[in-house]
Write a structure and sequence with these properties.
The chain is an alpha+beta fold. The chain contains four helices and 16 strands. The protein has one domain. The strands form four sheets. Strands 1-2-5-6-14-13 form a six-stranded antiparallel β-sheet, with no helix packed on it. Strands 12-11-10-9-15-16 form a six-stranded antiparallel β-sheet. Strands 3-4 form a two-stranded antiparallel ribbon. The N terminus and C terminus are likely disordered.
Length: 289
Amino acid sequence: MKLQTLKAVLGAAVMVSALALTGQQAQAGTMFKGWNYSIDSFKDGTEGSTIGSKSKFEFYGMAFKETADKVIFAFNSNLSKQGYNYRSALGGKISYGDLMLDFTGKGSINQANGSLYGVRFDATNDTKGKLGLYNNVTTSSVTTQNAGYTSHNHHTGTVNNNLKGHASFGDMDTNTTYFKGTDAAQTTIAKGNYAGGITEINDFSAYGLNFGHFNAIGAHTFGFSIDKSLLPKGNFVASLFAECGNDGMVLVGRVPEPSVIIGLSAVGLMASASQLRKRRGQASATAEA
């Protein structure tokens, strides 16, 4: 098999595996300078009758990057990590939910429930427990306790029909089978085992992050890193919602499986062998001359 052909096959295998994880509604992630971006609709975050850039709940995008020993997540949004003060909300404030990470490949968050990873990164939210990564996570929803939407369908219908916006989950369409439309957004870690800490990142100037390349210009950009050793290998679905469900986004990640890494190593060996044969041929021709 030619080198270019093998590279194409390996690349296609990674893409097919990632899309198979979430069904056909999953969109291909956007790679830019080492980051995998999921860019959400700029007109589906609601605040009363306000939608889009003027809404405090507009989520613009999520990004993921892998280093030698870390995985990094970044978010661009109009919602501050200080929360949104609202008297009728649980605790008088609406914050970010927890980031849910699904490595199971089961195709829906309900089927994966109990086997999820979750990250509590917002100290102002309604989740109990310390900040950090949790495994064996079971989720719950606090949208109705935070004056929010009763279901995904409720949010989508309000955005598309009443407010004339365009609802999206970023890397997934709102009609995805990954979420059940009649369910409320799974916002919160209800139960799980603490697996380790996270490192907060508020300045990404040294990381090459560029949401602006996609015109994602929310008021706040922030994120965190996790030690890679705390997470499994493989493809994942990352989902994040505001505690009220007023906006949310999904990123389909593609961390190379060991078999893909082996395949890429084989590509390198094939290239080296080809170069070696070429050098031997050149040396033989020189000797004969």
